[in-house]
Specification:
The complex is a heterodimer of chains A (286) and B (283). Chain A is mainly alpha-helical and 286 residues long. Helix content of chain A is 80%, strand content 0%. Chain A has 14 helices and no strands. Chain B is an all-alpha fold and 283 residues long. In chain B, helix 3 crosses helix 7, helix 7 packs antiparallel against helix 11 (207-213) and helix 8 packs across helix 14 (270-282). The chains are: A mainly alpha (286), B mainly alpha (283). At the A-B interface, helix 2, helix 4, helix 5, helix 6 and helix 7 of A face helix 1, helix 3, helix 4, helix 5 and helix 7 of B.
């Protein structure tokens, strides 16, 4: 018996070894990854740290740079929060209810992934400009959207929505509805069931979707610059300031801002990975 | 009764939000594009500079997408068929470009190939132009679209295991035969799915390309950059006319994506598979 098992095991090892191409595919993967991604990114870090701490710190803490970083991260934070709220409703409605044209609505959620950011940018600007359909309606109420930080948030709402919806949808589909029914039978209101039963199960995925939308929004450029107004200290995002510095041949300044943004983005990515690990142990059943 | 009211309210909120933030901008593109009539639309789209931008956008996609496709297949093969140390880290590194602002994606190539860059002096001495020329646009596009195919293929290949390949190999097929006749047919929908998303981003990329393009009309202007120039010149109808072509491409992409998901429902489950994948790696 034991010898049969050993023989099978040996046979499996043999088979594992006969799938070819490990060296070729892993080698090519590492080469291409290094040439396209790792070496170019390390160029930014090496150039950035090559500036010396004082120069680097001086560039990064300049009021205009700080204002742009605050704006980029602040607007992204607000947009991701609003997206988390509405994204949850959209994901809920798409997984739990039936209504006409649901398939088309579901497909449309991916529009921000497919529509070029510049196209989204000019369309949103035209809509929310004082002369636009929505801008013209909001102006008498004293709300200015285009060419203000609020406009930046609107563009980031557009960009980030699918991240939240697409992260939540599969989790909602898997959620055991019997637990909800049990809660209802035990006398819980719909709201109590949502807060005590559904939300705790969704929390890790909701946070992951929020973080993905936030990460994308922080670096976003194309959809924002048309609607932002781009006034220094007021509505100038960090990626735009990088371009401005490049156009003034201030490579050191551009690189320093880029390094700060890269470090914050990578931190965020680690956080997202950790969150996904948490979501996994939460739903860890299968 | 109360439940039905709640359901109606939630559906209304969701549709209103999607309508306001997704559908309305899309409608605006087409209305503005046709605001000066069909003649002006045709003129804007068939303008020689617009056509040059279309040609460049197609050229960039034709180079960038196949390169990232080959990489995606190779990476998925290595990750799905073999066990090795550092696999989880490799998957994270492949995703790295998604965490980088497009503007920074452009900047890094200026730091490498610009006149002040690491290879700047060498390139200048040999009269080679990478930045502010077509090669830079291609490189920046490859960077931002780098993860798309690999990301779709890895979970697809992982979930299919390696039984089919092992059977083919034990029946005497060699590695290439196994890949072309067994693996490729198995992963074709997933591959197409990844290529579709990769292509949409490649043709629409704006920030990264904007940094390295140099904005020479007719030479280094892609379609999104052409839209920007027309818009900034207050040539709004023309800007939206060219933009409408990109919007049509986006709609086609979404339609093809839905069709693929209908044909191969497992593609929709990608995020679930990504979780399984990470779990597999952790073991």
């Amino acid at each position: 018996m034991a010898s049969t098992a050993a023989a099978i095991h040996h046979h499996e090892n043999e088979l594992r070894r006969i799938i070819p191409g490990f060296g070729l595919t892993l080698g090519y993967t590492m080469l291409y990854l290094s040439l396209i991604v790792l070496i170019p990114l390390s160029a930014a870090f090496i150039r950035g740290f090559g500036l010396g701490w004082e120069h680097f710190w001086g560039v990064v803490t300049a009021p205009r740079v700080m204002a742009s970083l605050r704006l980029s991260f602040g607007a992204a934070l607000i947009a991701a929060t609003v997206n988390a709220f509405f994204g949850l409703i959209v994901a809920w409605v798409l997984t739990r209810y039936e209504f006409p044209f649901k398939g088309i609505v579901d497909a449309m959620v991916d529009l921000p992934f497919a529509l070029p950011t510049a196209v989204a940018g000019i369309a949103l600007t035209t809509l929310y400009a004082p002369s636009g359909w929505l801008g013209g309606t909001l102006l008498p109420l004293g709300i200015k959207v285009a060419y203000t930080p609020l406009g930046i948030v609107v563009a980031l709402l557009f960009i980030g929505l699918p991240f939240v919806v697409r992260t939540l949808q599969p989790v909602l589909e898997e959620l055991d509805q019997e637990v909800e029914q049990a809660a209802a039978t035990l006398g819980a209101s719909a709201w109590q069931t949502f807060v005590r039963v559904i939300l705790p199960a969704l929390w890790p995925s909701l946070l992951t979707g929020f973080a993905l939308a936030f990460a994308r929004a922080v670096g976003e450029y194309g959809s924002v610059i048309f609607i932002a107004g781009n006034r220094p200290m007021k509505s100038e995002i960090a990626p735009l300031l990088i371009i401005t510095k490049l156009e003034q041949y201030d490579y050191a300044g551009a690189t320093a801002i880029a390094v700060v943004m890269l470090m914050l983005s990578f931190l965020l990515m680690f956080a997202i990975n950790a969150l996904q690990g948490w979501a996994l142990t939460r739903h860890g059943g299968r | 009764m109360k439940l039905r009211v709640g359901r109606f309210a939630l559906i209304s909120v969701a549709l209103l939000f999607l309508g306001l933030f997704l559908v309305l901008p899309l409608i605006v593109v087409f209305i503005e594009a046709l605001s000066k009539g069909l003649g002006a639309y045709v003129a804007a789209v068939s303008d020689p500079l617009a056509l040059a931008a279309v040609r460049l956008t197609l050229l960039v996609a034709v180079i960038a997408v196949p390169l990232n496709m080959i990489f995606g297949v190779a990476a998925a093969w290595a990750i799905a068929k073999f066990e090795f140390r550092g696999k989880s880290a490799l998957i994270t590194l492949i995703d790295l470009p998604f965490a980088v602002s497009p503007v920074i994606a452009g900047l890094v190539f200026i730091l490498l190939f610009g006149s002040n860059g690491w290879f700047g002096a060498f390139l200048q001495a040999h009269g080679i132009h990478i930045v502010f020329a077509v090669p830079g646009i291609v490189l920046a596009t490859i960077f931002v679209t780098f993860p798309f195919v690999a990301r779709e293929l890895i979970p697809v290949m992982q979930s299919q295991g390696k039984d089919d390949e092992e059977t083919a190999l034990s029946l005497g097929a060699n590695g290439w035969q196994t890949f072309w006749r067994v693996t490729l047919p198995n992963i074709r929908w997933g591959l197409l799915y990844g290529v579709l998303l990769c292509n949409a981003r490649a043709m629409g990329e704006f920030g990264a390309v904007s940094v390295v393009s140099g904005h020479v009309r007719g030479l280094t202007n892609t379609m999104p950059l052409h839209v920007e120039i027309l818009y900034n010149e207050y040539n709004i109808a023309a800007a939206f006319s060219v933009a409408s072509l990109l919007a049509l491409l986006a709609l086609l992409t979404l339609a093809a994506k839905s069709l693929l998901e209908w044909r191969a429902p497992e593609l929709r489950r990608r995020s679930r598979q990504m979780r399984d994948l990470h779990r597999g790696v952790r073991k």
